[in-house]
Design brief:
The protein is α+β, with helices and mostly antiparallel strands. The chain has 5 helices and 8 strands; from the N terminus they run βαββααββααβββ. It has helices spanning 20-24, 49-59, 66-78, 110-129, 135-141; strands at residues 6-16, 30-31, 40-48, 86-96, 101-107, 155-161, 169-178, 182-184. The longest helix has 20 residues, at 110-129.
């Protein structure tokens, strides 16, 4: 049985550096360097839609059903504006999560931060419409959303750290080009009514 897909709003990585060798050079810092195809920067993580919807239904004690949460969330995602492509820079690798992932920390233009803020505000508004009280508490405690920290660090996950060293590692500056925003696994969202 195939696992259910995770839904995110992301921007795809089009290029890292000026030549493929720039990205391949990260292999000196990272184990199991990910293929450059499929690299992305996540702007908003929803998680598995059915799990998110169940989190909403549980939080509201059934006032909002999981089915209503799926329908409204899918509609909201499908109506999101698109962020145009942009270029960022990276000068360090950071360790993410429990220490199992290395990522390029990316300095992105202000409009990307503004877009990200608009997504978070939109998520707040959606949760208000879904009758979720204490929205901030819900966001930080929903297993589907998976947020542990309110501060967003733009990054591109590239592999596993070579060592258990937790601090950032300085690298030669790299330009990272991103395409327009998209909904990852959007094809799995239910069709609008």
């Amino acid at each position: 049985m195939q696992p259910l897909p995770r839904i995110t709003v992301e921007v795809p990585v089009l290029a890292v550096g000026s030549a493929p060798s720039d990205y391949e050079g990260l292999g000196t810092y990272v184990n199991a360097l990910r293929s450059p195809q499929g690299l992305h920067l996540t702007l908003l993580h929803i998680g598995i839609l059915a799990d998110f919807a169940q989190d909403v239904a549980d939080w509201t004690k059934g006032t909002t059903t999981a089915g209503d949460a799926v329908r409204h969330t899918a509609g909201w995602l499908q109506e999101l504006p698109v962020l145009d492509g942009f270029t960022g820079t990276s000068e360090q690798l950071i360790v993410l999560g429990g220490g199992g992932i290395s990522g390029l920390e990316v300095d992105v233009p202000g409009r990307v931060h503004d877009f990200r803020e608009s997504l978070v505000q939109g998520l707040h508004d959606l949760l208000d419409r879904l009758l979720v009280d204490n929205v901030d508490d819900f966001i930080l405690s929903s297993p589907a959303l998976g947020y542990r920290y309110p501060h967003w660090v733009p990054h591109v996950a590239v592999g596993r750290p070579l060592s258990r060293e937790r601090g950032p590692r300085t690298i030669a500056p790299l330009t990272v080009a991103f395409g327009p925003s998209r909904i990852r696994n959007g094809r799995f969202l239910p069709a609008p009514d």
